[in-house]
Specification:
- It is a single chain.
- With about 425 residues, this protein is an alpha/beta fold.
- The longest helix has 18 residues.
- It has 3 domains: about 210 residues, 3-Layer(aba) Sandwich (Rossmann fold); about 100 residues, Tyrosyl-Transfer RNA Synthetase, CATH 1.10.240.10; about 70 residues, RNA-binding S4 domain (Structural Genomics Hypothetical 15.5 Kd Protein In mrcA-pckA Intergenic Region, Chain A).
- Strands 3-2-1-4-5 form a 5-stranded parallel β-sheet, with helices on both faces. Strands 8-12-11-9-10 form a 5-stranded mixed β-sheet, sandwiched between helices.
- It is about 45% helix and about 10% strand.
- It is elongated, with a radius of gyration of 26 Å.
Length: about 425
Amino acid sequence: MTLSEELTWRGFVNQMTFKNITELDDESRTLYFGVDPSADSMQIGNLAAAMMVRCFLDHGYKVILLVGGATGLIGDPDGKTEERELKSLEVVAKNKAGIAAEYKTVFAGKDFELVDNYDWFKGLGYLEFLRDIGKHVPMRQMLGREFVQSRLSEDGAGISYAEFSYALIQGYDFLHLYREKGATLQISGADQWGNCIAGVELIRRVTAGEAHVYSMPLVINKATGKKFGKTEGGAIWLNEKKTSIYQFYQFWLNADDEGVEYYIKIYTLLSPDEVEKVMHEFKQNPGGRAAQKRLAYEVTKTVHGKERADAIKRVSETLFGGDSYKDLGESEFVLLANELPVVQAKHDETQLVVAIVEAGLANSNTEARRFLESNAVYVNGEQIPLSKTHFGPEDDINGHAVLRIGKNKNALVKFN
């Protein structure tokens, strides 16, 4: 499969300056892809673009990943109705480190170069920038941007000179990497098209050289028609301190049936044959959710590594799929401890009624007893007999047990 064929199959086709997408197959170029450190982690929207970069990497392109220490100090105004709050150098530095670490994980085993535009902007003088760069940028081009028109309209919030200049700063990034690294292609998300074109125009005006832009479309939730990756709890982050591995895995596991094949093509490295096989199994038995399970595992493996993906898969299949709790190891119980209420217990001493209430699974001892009397209490997936009143050694799996009420109210018991 050629690069253009894979990009098309995976749904990574949107706007481009090439007359035909097959021009990407003619030669392996040097490209750059940039992200501003507006937070210390990427969201899964950023991950989609990163997976597109993987396609170019796998087809022999040289990739430069730019973490914008300079542009991050200003903030991209495109799509924003009001001025961004400026971030300090310390915050931007922390955010840069977090995002760079995530790139290194997502692109593990791949050869790429990581750069920071603060390195070339910190020594660039204002007058030098105006003479050498600003002189080549027509005001009509900058004023014509849709977001500028919106911010300058009667109902708009206005725009500062700093944010107005953002496209010029990003355009200079492309010019710098064109001159210093031989980058002739910038790839981006759909929302960055205008900023990228500013770089193409600057290269043409300053050097008479030719450069190109390739963008991917916005990823849409097929069930809701809205931007993919937003939930009631907020954005889905790659940083496990913002979105735990358990929550991350569950997000993909709950993907809608209408869009699961679309998400698999975008967010995993599975081949067409593998995707066809997974989707065949899914269509034979949609209730088995084979596609969602494979999607959740593959994305978690890419972001958090195989070992942790294997662990969270075992946890999920134990809690919701009927697998034996006895197969859970210490690492799986560590994951559970970050997600479930935790209660301390001692063999033959701790009453089940007390543990149920302390875990928050019941509001009172009376309610807890009612659960026990109605056979609604499970320990390690096993429905407990009416005669059982305390935890015993038989409940202990690597120093833990999982206490459940009904179908999905769980707590972790830690034995002292």
